[in-house]
Amino acid sequence: MRTAKIERNTKETQIALIWNTDGQGIYEGTCGIGFLDHMLQALCVHGKFDIQLSMKGDLEVDCHHSTEDLGIVLGMALAKALEEKGGIRRYGTAYIPMDETLGFCSLDISGRAFLVYEAEYENQSIGALDCCMIKEFFRALAFQAGITLHMKILYGENDHHKAEALFKAFAHALKDAVTETGGGVLSSKGVL
């Protein structure tokens, strides 16, 4: 199994996480932000990943440190679980409809971190999660995991649907990209 355990402790957050790339779609634990927990559960279910999380953050300040640091740790765990990135599809793309919303994600597990993110929200927050932090979460994850990540809301009205469409599109694209193919690294260079 492609599994990684990461612990990261700062003055703002204390996170212990286990990521199983070949899981059953189970999310255990809480980050302390209800809507983000809902999104992580969707990520696990739709990607067939297992995540065990133990986390404390300075939520009395706001959700910023917890959301960004969780993205960092998830990215670190994904990079460690995939190691040399050999024998996987490497690329994944998904469009996910969520009622009136259509979300898009395309990614490359390339070792070259980049984020293109296009999504606008009507409200400042969804529950206790500031909408501006969704981009920061994915930026932190992509940069730690070494993923080139493109995400976009093509259209939609409801902020909950927009965020959920992006998380589910990411889950499906990542699930495809980490699918084992056998063989070496998918690159004309022979390495990533």
Tell me the layout of helices and strands:
Elements: E1 3-9, E2 13-20, E3 27-30, H1 34-47, E4 50-57, H2 64-82, E5 91-98, E6 101-108, E7 114-118, E8 125-126, E9 129-130, H3 132-145, E10 148-155, H4 159-177
Parallel strand pairs: 3-4, 7-10
Antiparallel strand pairs: 1-2, 2-4, 5-6, 6-10, 8-9
Helix pairs in contact: 1-4, 2-3
Structure description:
The protein has a single domain, classed as Imidazole glycerol phosphate dehydratase, domain 1 (Ribosomal Protein S5, domain 2, 2-Layer Sandwich), CATH 3.30.230. 34% of the residues lie in helices and 31% in strands. The protein has 192 residues and is an alpha+beta fold. It is built from four helices and ten strands. The longest helix has 19 residues, at 64-82. Strand 5 (91-98) and strand 6 form a beta hairpin. This is Imidazoleglycerol-phosphate dehydratase.
